[in-house]
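Render this sequence as a predicted structure.
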Amino acid sequence: MPTYEYKCDKCGHQFEQMQGITAKSLRKCPKCGKTALKRLIGTGAGLIFKGSGFYATDYRSENYKESVKKEKPEKTSDKKETAATPAKKESAGEQKVKTKGRK
C-alpha cells in the first residue's frame, strides 16, 4: 500500500497517510477540520523485492563485482598437496586383523 503526503492550504499542516491506490484523496484536514487538503507529489520509496528468487547481489554493477574479486585472497588448493603424498599401505598382518571374524 503506498504512502501519500498531504498538506493543508489553510493551516499548513503536513502529514503522510497510507492508502490504497484506488482510494480517493483525503479532503478534510485532521488538525483544523477544513476541506483544504492537497496531495503532494512525493519522491516515492525504493522498490523492494520480497520472496524467493531475489538476491541482493543479483543487480550489482560490474565495477563492484571486479573490486570484490580483487579484494578476495586467492586460495591455494589443498587437494594437490594431499594427492602428491602417497597413501599408507597396510601390511599383511593388519589386513588379517581387519578380516578376522568375517566370513
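Summary. The first strand starts at residue 3 and ends at 8. The mean pLDDT is 75.
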